[in-house]
Amino acid sequence: MTDESVLNIVVMVCVLGVAGISICARRRKQKQRWFSGVAAISVICLLIIGGAAFWYTHRPLPAPTRTSLFRGIEYERLVEDGPMIVHVVRIDLDTPELTFRITPASSSSSYDVDARTTSEFLSEFKLQLAINGDFFDPWRDIGFWDYYPHSGDGVNTRGLSAAIGDVYTEGYTLKERYHTLYISETNEASFTAPDNGIFNAISGNIRLIQNGDPISITDVENEYLMKRHPRTAVGFDEAGKTLIIVVIDGRQPNYSEGATIPELIEFMLGSGVFEGINLDGGGSSTLVIEGEQGQAVVLNSPIHNRIPGRERPIANHLGVYTERLNQVEHE
Predict the structure, then answer these.
(1) What is the pLDDT of residues 41-98, one digit of tens each?
(2) Pick from 100, 56, 65: nearest CA to 85
(3) Domains of the chain, residue spans
(4) For residues 12 and 225, what is the distance between their CA atoms, to the nearest angstrom?
């Protein structure tokens, strides 16, 4: 091998070495940039998650309030120790032009009803106020990515349901396992089926108060009864002239933990309820009114898929038509 050949080989090796070092350096820089990008995205995600977690556990509490929402409808928000946010609605059943609406039967599926959020129900039927109603099935809530029903999906109600004279189901459970609120065409409220036919009806699972007396809680180990959850309940006063709704926010740490059934009964009694039942609660508990521009406004803080403020599509609802206060002022 000549000296020239050796020199050529050395030069080639040097060139290849420099090229290799250059390529490695570029790849290292690319990796560094990639890792820097991933790190930046990770930091941003952590900040978002941390901020959301901080907000979730440090939300400011609303102020207590009491106001007239519509003609014949009074609203009160209580802020109790716990913390616990309680919403109380009182509806004067003698109010002229006031009528009720229950979610109608499904016209497109073999299920009882098509699921809607409470806001969707209020907007669809142009109501002034609406709350969630009965328990239902099928249902699942594994997370934001996997739950049922979505709006429009078919579901069945647990108890008897009727809308404007149409008794479209007697429920999928035994009659002795649910209690039903009946509202006549003339707004007479009762927990006893009328003899002259059912007009509007919506059901719940537990009779909370009967003849002014609270139910006796014997199963103190029952977590559904004794653990705090969001709750919705409905009843009426001793004269039968005022329908009373209680909605309690829950599952939201440091904002509102929810209520046990005994605590719910206590608030019902304190609100003047003489006869009352428990409706579906948990992620279903929702109270919505019509806003000034006709839009749905959620008064409470529902929680669905563990997300505060997110509404759950549910089976049936109880809604109210009445006049706006500005309509009354201009009469």
Answers:
(1) 777 767 766 765 665 667 899 999 999 999 999 999 999 998 999 999 999 999 999 9
(2) 65
(3) 1-58, 65-329
(4) 83
